[in-house]
Fold each of these.
Amino acid sequence: MMGRAADGAIGRGQSLARTPRALLSLGVLAGLVLAAIGAPLLAPHDPFDPATLDLMNGFTAPMTHNPYTGDLFWLGADDQGRDVFSAILFGLRISLFVGMSAVALAAMLGVSLGLLAGYLGGWVDGLTMRAADVQLTFPAILVAMLIFGVAKGITPVAYRDEMAIWVLILAIGLSDWVPFARVVRGAAMVEASRDYVLAARLSGRSGPAIMLRHILPNVLSPVLVIATIGLAQAIVTEATLSFLGIGAPPTQPSLGTLIRTGQSYLFSGEWWILAFPAATLLALALAVNLLGDWLRDRLNPVLQ
Amino acid sequence: MRAHLIRRVLQSGLVLLVVGFVAFSMFRFVGDPVDNMLGPERTQADIARLRTDLGLDRPIPVQYARYLAQAVQGNLGVSYRLGRPVADILAERAPATLELAAVSGLLALVGGVALGVLTAIRRGGIATGVLMTLSLVGVSLPTFLIGIGLIYVFAICLGWLPSFGRGDTVQIGGWTTGLLTASGRRALILPALTLGLYQMTLIMRLVRSQMLEVLSHDHIRFARARGLPEWRVLFRHALQNALVPVITVAGLQLGSIIAFAIVTETVFQWPGLGLMFINAIRFVDIPVMAAYLMLISAMFVAINLLVDLLYLFIDPRLRPAQQRSGG
Amino acid sequence: MSVGPVLSLRDVSVSVPGRGARGARALAVDRVSVDIAAGEVLGIVGESGAGKSLLASAVTGLLPPRAGLSGGEVWIAGARVDHLPEARLRRLRGRVVGTVFQDPLGALNPLMTIGAQLAETIAVHLPLSRSAARQRAAEALAEVGIPAPADRLGCYPHELSGGMRQRVGIALALCAAPALLIADEPTTALDVSVQAQILALLKRLCRDRGMAVMLITHDMGVIAETADRIAVLYAGRLVETGPVRDVLDTPCHPYTDGLVAAVPRIDGRPGRLAQIPGAMPPPGARPAGCAFHPRCALARDRCRKDPAPEVAAAGGRAACWFPCRSLPARTDP
């Protein structure tokens, strides 16, 4: 019943070619992913190399020549004279990397736990599902914040900035495994009683490994949908954490970090430092979300 | 139903115990509490005394039990960063967050239900199309971008509303409220809107789909066939039935409003629990993080139980039958 | 004594959207005319999809969203109502025309006590105070044979049995003493033992109040037990109408004959449990000529070409080229 809450304007059973919105989303996403991959080639400047920065270029407006240096920046320059366009390309890289890695981690964790819970049943199943219930009591972003905070506490101070990206992936990934586990567990419970699993166990092979091969085709489409919607969430969570100053550090700025920096200059009129990263994040989040919506309606699996 | 309630209470207790253990583990194992609490000029004797005071020489289960007992009594330790009792900080910060969350929740509920009903009744209308598209964008929009956008338009461009802080507050007993001053109310508008918008779109979409389903039911046809006025059919019979599942979602949303208050409070520098929590994470102030975790969990658990009870109150089918008659 | 029928339908047609995305609209009810007098039960019978419920909905203007009245006239108590605006029609509902639905559990609001639902309906139609409305609600329950009615007012629908719920449904329909009661499959969802009680109740109310009753059913047994007159619908058209005894004894339309023969007999004789071969065509896919001809054993070329004429038959009328021809084939007296 809850699934009907999201009755969108997107109809069921339409192919990609006939839904311009999904097609546009895919195009935008593909463009952003390509831009992120090709960032070192596409970026006019290297935002990580302090040697190329000229403080005289600070606050240069978009598409205007700096009165002192004569340099031109498409999307302007930030307070330190860093090219905003280049910063966005590299920020996009980090945002996408963190988002995708986090979803991959969540999927691996969720699929493994779901498989084990469904296969073994008993107390393993009980424990896993209770843990899922407890975790679901809290919004994912809060769980991610806590994990980030704890991990930060454990990391030695000298390595904190360096480790921040990995800690971020860990925090977001660990906060989002439950939907994967639930779907796979359901499928695994059905398969566990089949003859081939018994045969595999009798011949001394690993039950879960055999099951995974059989279950995977069945759960592939719901897992894909969960992963896509999860990716949108992970990107937004990452941006939010970084915006709050507890995510990607200024030395490795993601889109959220850039927005955090840009927010300080909103009042003084240097809107471009904030607006362009924000627009990029918005396009990214919207594209992935719409794509996820379309996938869900298209594949229409029974989702929790 | 009674068995269900008992199970839910036990489950809630379990959640609190687990969360308590997580909080305790954070306190005990992340960083050395003794290290954090004593200044640089400490003696070996100081360390030993504090260890005994904190009970760190006892077995772990005993420490956990002791930690829980202390927490229940309101002794949540001392902030590493501020050097003040955490309980005092929480008490000082809580009113700001609770006022913000309550106003946002109310906004989300009232706005969401109203717009959901509107878009369900005017199914093919232009306003419905616009609202549904906006809600799709609204769900994808990160909360902090909504906040920044609102600040840009209403604080910077138009200059109508303040962009940060809580405005003037009034002290009533131990509670500071911003609701009684004009500047306090003005300061509340943008944060409340930022925090409530996402939940509002969710509730709107849910109410809409529930209304559409209920409106096709037989009892709606029968209500019309009995000659009841249309407003009564819509708002009494249809809405009442449509709202039953909305309660669960709204309850859960209230929980996430409190969580997302962290983001909103940071954007608007709102002096509440969320801002405190973010600073605690940034400076690895473990006692504050642990206390916040426990406080928030207690709120979530209470909300969930309340939702269960509310169900019982609203849906007579869940109550034990009073009488049954044949015929 | 008779001052004309309570309900009079004149060539009423109801159109529905055709099949497919842009199919033309099709007639689900095709020029049907029937009358119901005060104190009379008219049974409308037919397979599902024959247009019975649409015909009933057309009386009060509560057709499903995409269906519409596309022709004909509806007269209630001597006044034409089919062109009335929605606000005027609403005043007819409940007050002049009561309706009883098939599924009594689905037809009641599950979250309101039956007392509240009764009181609310009474308050809309009668100028009564709160306490008087509650009093009237208890009386309404007593009238439909619910024991200890005052105690039942606080019950929720799920706390009552199916038969009790349907009695509540009838009480709700009769709150404002309507002149016409439309009962759409009122016993289909009930146990057989309860069916008879509900039908007896409807018949008693009809006689006591001098109310006209339109009883819609697919069950010939229900018709035989309750109705005074019968109207048989097939594929949206009225194929036979007349006094129930006459029609059941000597059905003139081959379709009516098939329906009568399909009723299992309880008088001991091994009656033919006949089935009519084939299926009724949906609106928009009806064949030329008489719509029944593909399933009719008596069909001739004429039936395939021209619509059947209406002829006088066994105390009523039938729409058939070869009425009453099936009689020799039957072994009954």
Amino acid sequence: MVLHKLKRMLSKLGAGCINKIWRLGAGGRLFWLTLVSSGESFRRFRLTIREIYFTGVLSLIIILVSAFFVGMVLALQGYHTLQKYGSSEAIGVLVALALVRELGPVVTALLFAGRAGTAITAEIGLMKATEQLSAMEMMAVSPIARVIAPRFWAGVIAMPVLATLFSMVGILGGYLVAVPLIGVDAGAFWSQMQANVDWEYDILNGVLKSVVFGVACTMIALFEGYDAPPTAEGVSRATTRTVVSSSLAVLGLDFILTSFMIAV
Amino acid sequence: MERTTIDLWVGIFVALGFAALLGLAMKVGNLTTSSIGQTYLVTANFENIGGLKPRAPVKSAGVVVGRVSEITFDPKTYEAVVSLNIDTRYNFPKDTFANIYTAGLLGEQYIGLEAGGDEVNLKNGDKISQTQDAVVLEKLISQFLYSKATESDDKPGKTASASTESGVDALDASPLDKIGK
């Protein structure tokens, strides 16, 4: 009896593992197919521009507003601690490094997954459920080249732009709290920041991170949509999975990328 | 939505992105301040570099004149070999003195150059022979504690000997010491 139960549990675990690996492989194949058939999204760049509008421009409000508040909170919290050590001028460095290196790319990617990733998954899932993708195939139009690839490249282009804007607006928010509100010297705020933030080591690495997050988030959203069961429930589950797995992927990738970048 | 409107918005979006990157580069990063153009390389050997790191500034009279490019260890002399990239606009005599200083009490460490009086200037690939190691705070503290400890060890010893021996002995001891010397 116990043996029977154990057997069932083990086979459940095995099925789960095989399913996960299968999905990973299918995602990898979709990624490869997208890369191979992405010629059209550059030849007809208007397709990609349309998607940049939907994923990038329409995400601007949420990204900019949250960046502003994140910067302001960073400055308040940082000042509280730094002032104990008599180095409140270092607030500029703290805000800039935290935003440029970590919070800019990561928080942007998390918000992007919630704002744009879900939209992509739901759209493609519904396209599949209403058999629009099959119709395209019937007309000898590759849905991967026509639907998936433009959205992929739009996400990859939009993410670094959003992350850079996030960092910049966050620093402006930090400046507004630190200098006019708290009264830190403006010159010290900017000069300490400039002395300690490196163009290549900090800023370019941050942008590189956001490009990687863009690839990961968009690809997960596209795969979940493409793979969703063609039912209302299937699409809703796929949308949830998009948010969960892109957030986890972003945080995991962030650790890996950071460990590589810091070690150099 | 019309195509032209979408184009316009995407254009604004991408332009904003580039503007932010430019802003980060110019206002936040040190792309403008640290752009040391042409540099020449000199090396300096130190017995102890403390917490000096690559990319640390090289200053002379407080002005940044270069950056530390590489720090390696010489297994023959057991010394640290620090390579310095110095701006070609600034020339230093051959007998320049290189020190490792700390900015503030616990701040980052940097290399300070003090120009000597030699008429020949340092060239690319030269070695600065006169160096002074980093002040390691733990070493200083332990030295201080050690000297304090030996001081306080001496005092009880003297008083103990004085109290056990009679006053006459103590008086006798001092002339004898003088004779011995």
